[in-house]
Amino acid sequence: MNIMSGAKRYRVAGMAAVAFLVFVLAFPAVGPKAGRSLIDQAETMLLVLPPIFLLLGLLDVWVPKKALMKYMGPKSGFTGPLIAFVLGSVAAGPLYGAFPVSAILMKKGASFTNVLIFIGAWSTTKIPMFLFEMHALGTRFALARLVIDIPGIILIAFALKVIIPAREVARLYAAAESTGTPEE
Amino acid sequence: MDTIILYGIAVVLLAVSAAKDREKTRRAILKGAKAFESILPQLVTVLLAVAAVLAVFNPEMVSRVIGARSGFLGVLAASVVGGIALIPGFVAFPAAAELLKSGARTMQIAAFVSSLMMVGVVTLPMEIKYFGRRAAIARNSLAFAFCFLAAAFVAWAVSL
Asked: Which residues constitute the domain of residue A76?
């Protein structure tokens, strides 16, 4: 990767930084708060993401495509969605941690529907969060949400499968193929 | 707590991998680092957006929006706020419980919690990077619509 393409890739981030500065200067009242939350969020992200990416690297190297495809591929039947649910539910961390994981699942041949179910499960059916929700908002509230969310996740996954054209899915899979491949 | 478990798993698996095959482990670390670097620009953008949004959408503001209106408009407002805010569950759940105690409707709280978890407006740049513009926007829109259904269902189930 040369310097030019590096600069181009960070163009949007640079613009965001400028916008953030303008925001802080324009609203001095919330400036310190924004600064503090920037540090807090950066801490969380930099704490959560490195182990996730390390695990992704290990998964990429050790798990053969054939094996993952067998359990989560288009021909995996009911096992695929089940594994997707379990994987997403035992996961830790905010939803943005799930996106890089999906890329590796695509690379290893998981079906698009199963990847989408995984994303849905990560977003709402996480077990530690469920226990916490039960404690804070009541068993009925948490259980009702879980009961409606599971079909909701499946419904959204299938709706997306219908909405997104096969060509776009193929493009995403091709892009996932190249993630994390070191230039050797 | 989550993070400690995550690190524990990562370290154990790294050790097992290194014991089995040094060369493969080296490649795994390189691949992980490369994948991390490739998302870094989007990550920085999201980080800045989240910081700015959180400075405005603090728990007090969330309470004001959710506490102020009831009915459909209240549910809509709660879903919108939940979709934009990026508050971890262990902060959001107690705050939502407080709101319930101070008289907010179950339906609004359910809408807020659901969209907080399923819809991510500020993290869109990251989602687009992996899922493309079309799928990312479609997923968030569908999840947003689903929040209303989930909210109605939870309110009904709790009222039984």
From this structure: 63-177
Do A158 and A104 share a domain, yes or no? yes
ipTM rounded to 2 decimals: 0.86
A55 belongs to a structural domain: no
Q: Is the dihedral of CA B123, B127, B133, B137 positive or negative?
A: negative
Q: What angle do CA B70, A147, B100 make, to 5 degrees?
A: 30
Task: Express each pLDDT in B17-30 by its tens digit.
Answer: 999 999 999 999 99
Is the Cβ–Cβ distance between A27 and B51 less than 8 Å? no
Please tell me the distance from the alpha carbon of residue B148 to that of residue B126, in angstroms, as a whole number. 25
A46 chain-B contacts, CB cut-off 8 A: none
Residue B44 has pLDDT above 60, yes or no: yes
Question: From B53, which residue of chain A is nearest by alpha-carbon distance?
Answer: A34
What values do phi and psi take at A167, rounded to 5? -65, -40
Is residue A58 one of the residues assigned to a domain?
Answer: no
Shared domain for A6 and A97, answered yes or no, is no
pLDDT in tens, A93-130: 778 889 999 999 999 999 999 999 999 999 988 888 88
* Rounded Cα gap, residues B37 and B132, in angstroms: 18
What is the CB-side half-sphere exposure of residue B131 using CA atoms within 13 A? 28
Contact between chains at A30 and B55 (C-beta distance less than 8 A): yes
Which two tokens mark A55?
A: 């695990």
Reported confidence tier of residue B100, pLDDT bands at 50, 70, 90: confident
Report how many domains make up chain A. 2
Domain contains A53: no
| Residue at A117 is within a domain | yes
